[in-house]
């Protein structure tokens, strides 16, 4: 039987908003939205919103037992990789404890959990990676994401995990992702440094949301790599983005990851092989040019609504530092 009631957790994040839009506009399911902020970023008449902190077991239990979802889609996480490295207790509490709370609440009703993990579960020595390759996280963020996967694997309820990487896209009010940061910087004429030794598939958030929807509709379980169609290094992606928006590529300087002295180590030769998802879920992720065209039209549509034809619309900063 196809699911009827869907709970979207982390609905205010970039992916959460894309998943919300897709499910609200494209299905007849009953939808409940939930995130930690006091209100939904974009109010959706078709769905209720409940404030829940995933780390508070009682709140999660209350939400799940009152709404009784057939499926929970978890888009919430502490996603700032460097903050996860320095604020380890909090990172574990959100990224692992939060998932354990969902599992405990879902177990009573045999609810399916759809969760999102990351290429950071791999060490980036020998990418691109297939689903069955051995995880070896370098960073604390990667460790929390792997632990969240393991919690689901051993939970004894139906689960679907999508590993993804370098999400980009535009949603009003969503946090600044790499692509938005770059756009905002180049529009202001700011010089930026972008690493040319990190490889992977930039992923349009809308494509991942669609992959999750297919997973839900087809009742799939297991791990799936859902990511963009092309593997490039971050500098090349930045140049293609600048060209797509007619911005000055001379403002972008290639650097090495080691030059940035970031707190968290990054997987360098990463990338996700998406063949299983393409075959089983019937999806065709966007190429970079296709993705950037969609990204550009999302921004243009928003600007038109706001009546401004120049600036990239403001998005939230790097999120609250809890
Ligand atoms: N972004 C990427 O490049 C990337 C790559 C690989 C995997 N992923 C995974 O993809 C998923 C979605 O990522 P995203 O980029 O959409 O993230 P995002 O924009 O940061 O959204 C995450 C959402 O979760 C919320 N949240 C954080 N702590 C919470 C808590 N305790 N209770 C309830 N909500 C909480 C955040 O609120 P605040 O903003 O207020 O903190 C935010 O609205 C995550 O699982 C992430 O790990 C992302």
What order do the helices and strands come in, and which of them pair?
Layout: E1 5-9, H1 14-26, E2 30-35, E3 48-51, H2 57-67, E4 71-74, H3 81-86, H4 88-107, E5 112-118, H5 140-153, E6 159-164, E7 167-168, H6 178-187, E8 192-195, E9 199-200, E10 203-204, H7 205-217, E11 222-225, E12 232-233, H8 234-244, E13 252-255, H9 257-260, H10 275-281, H11 288-306
Parallel strand pairs: 1-2, 1-4, 2-3, 4-5, 5-6, 6-11, 7-10, 8-13
Antiparallel strand pairs: 9-12
Helix pairs in contact: 1-7, 2-4, 4-5, 8-11
The structure holds NADP nicotinamide-adenine-dinucleotide phosphate.
NADP nicotinamide-adenine-dinucleotide phosphate (NAP) binds at residues 10, 12-16, 35-37, 53-55, 75-79, 94, 98, 116, 118, 164-167, 174-175, 177, 319-320.
Short structural summary:
The chain is built from eleven helices and 13 strands.
What small molecules does this complex bind? NADP nicotinamide-adenine-dinucleotide phosphate
CATH architecture of the domain at 5-175 and 202-231 and 272-286, please?
Answer: 3-Layer(aba) Sandwich
- Content of β-strand: 15-25%
Q: Please state how the strands of the largest beta sheet are arranged side by side.
A: 3-2-1-4-5-6-11
What is the name of the CATH class of the domain at 5-175 and 202-231 and 272-286?
A: Alpha Beta
Give the helices and strands as they follow along the chain: EHEEHEHHEHEEHEEEHEEHEHHH
- CA gyration radius, whole angstroms: 19 Å
Number of strands: 13
Largest sheet: 7 strands, parallel
Estimate the helix proportion, in percent.
Answer: 25-40%
Extract low-pLDDT stretches. Answer: 318-322
By CATH's scheme, which homologous superfamily of the domain at 5-175 and 202-231 and 272-286 applies?
Answer: NAD(P)-binding Rossmann-like Domain
Rounded average pLDDT: 93
CATH topology of the domain at 5-175 and 202-231 and 272-286: Rossmann fold
Question: What structural category arises from helix and sheet content?
Answer: alpha/beta
Count, helices: 11
Tell me the overall shape: globular
Q: How far apart are the first and last residues' alpha carbons, in Å?
A: 40 Å
């Amino acid at each position: 039987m196809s699911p009827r009631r869907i709970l979207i957790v982390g609905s205010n994040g970039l992916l959460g908003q894309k998943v919300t839009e897709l499910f609200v506009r494209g299905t007849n399911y009953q939808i409940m939205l939930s995130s930690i902020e006091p209100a939904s970023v974009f109010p959706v008449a078709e769905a209720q919103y409940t404030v829940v902190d995933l780390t508070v077991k009682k709140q999660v239990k209350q939400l799940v037992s009152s709404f009784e979802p057939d499926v929970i889609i978890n888009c919430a996480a502490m996603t700032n990789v460097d903050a996860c490295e320095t604020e380890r207790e909090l990172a574990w509490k959100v990224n692992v404890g939060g998932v354990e709370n969902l599992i405990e609440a879902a177990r009573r009703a045999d609810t399916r959990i759809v969760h999102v993990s990351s290429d950071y579960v791999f060490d980036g020595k020998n990418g691109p990676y297939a689903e069955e390759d051995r995880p070896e996280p370098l960073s604390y963020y990667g460790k929390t994401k792997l632990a969240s996967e393991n919690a689901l694997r051993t939970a004894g309820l139906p689960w679907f995990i999508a590993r993804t990487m370098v999400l980009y896209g535009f949603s009003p009010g969503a946090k600044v992702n790499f692509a938005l940061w770059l756009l905002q910087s180049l529009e202001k004429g700011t010089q930026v440094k972008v690493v040319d030794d990190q490889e992977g598939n930039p992923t349009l958030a809308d494509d991942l949301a669609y992959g999750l929807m297919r997973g839900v509709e087809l009742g799939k379980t297991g791990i799936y790599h859902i990511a963009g169609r092309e593997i490039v290094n971050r500098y090349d992606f930045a140049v293609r983005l600048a060209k797509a928006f007619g911005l000055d590529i001379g403002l972008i300087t290639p650097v090495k990851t080691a030059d940035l002295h970031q707190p968290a180590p990054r997987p360098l030769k990463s990338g996700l092989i998406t063949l299983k998802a393409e075959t089983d879920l019937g999806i065709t992720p966007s190429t970079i040019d296709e993705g950037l065209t969609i990204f550009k039209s999302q921004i243009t549509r928003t600007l038109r609504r706001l009546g401004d034809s120049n600036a990239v619309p403001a998005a939230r900063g790097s999120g609250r530092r809890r």
